[in-house]
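#dry-run=false #mode=assembly
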Amino acid sequence: MQKIGRLLEIEKLITEADISTQDELLRKLREKGIPCTQATLSRNLKQLGISRIPDGSGGYKYSLSAMLRLTDAFPFKLNLVPVIREITEARGMMIIRTLPGNASNTAFFIDGAGRFEIAGTIAGDDTILLIPRDGITIPQVHSCLESILPGLHEQIKKK
Amino acid sequence: MQKIGRLLEIEKLITEADISTQDELLRKLREKGIPCTQATLSRNLKQLGISRIPDGSGGYKYSLSAMLRLTDAFPFKLNLVPVIREITEARGMMIIRTLPGNASNTAFFIDGAGRFEIAGTIAGDDTILLIPRDGITIPQVHSCLESILPGLHEQIKKK
DNA sequence: AAAAAAAATGCATAAATATGCAAAAAATAG
DNA sequence: CTATTTTTTGCATATTTATGCATTTTTTTT
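#status=ok
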């Protein structure tokens, strides 16, 4: 699934820095080893609800749409469920295993949900350590994850 | 002051209907008797913080930037103060006189602020009737207007 | 009120983005 | 595993948007 990784990286890149053209974004993707063309990028941005907005300083930058930021109404939902392989628990923390190379992006996505329950995450290549906030139980984290990634637990059981 | 009227109309048009290209917006402006070119429109949209975002149904539409909607950080503020000529009071209501042709747009702008104090407005060509909500005093409406349109009262006094 | 400065505009065109179509890749069914 | 359907992609190009520059309009200053 080449596409999901690219979509995540796109979200990440436009979140981390101001990017003003698709060509600029394209270059950054390629630096990360993700090949892509402008055409595909244009389509992906549309799907993600990302648009080019005036940056207030005379230029433009890419940004998540107001719509996507303000509501959950946007019909497209990034589905990361398929890249998650296994979830286990140890020492009050949660260990999430993903397909190779997907841990960092997935962790970024989880962080992006801004949930109180989650104190932070650390990601390697295919493993994420999720640290719950003090006083939060593992079942609480499970339901939190389920709300971030609907269908997650059902998917895990299948494997 | 040709420009302000156009800016207001642009805001109004993209608020009222989904518009997907500048050419489409241009046509609607012209239908309203407001001449404009695509070049100017592009610049105006940038100034207003309006951008073209995916509409979630496979197309695009123009929309106020998230930034503008969420915060007051956007450096450009539409300055309607110059079109307002006079403010008087009658029967617990407020009568606002504007330059010819500017009442409707100005009222739209005031409505858009979504203030509790204001029950509603009715606009003719150069006059707005502002109806305060029950229990709201004229001085309260004055300070409400001042916050929507900073500098308003100072301007009025000068004339 | 005239001169000077600043802002707005149109034209032409550059820059940037979107998309039809055919090919390739991936997912699904049998 | 192979055939079928669906999804994704690139290429080429159409569409759409942004902007440099010269000109006009508006505002400010004197």
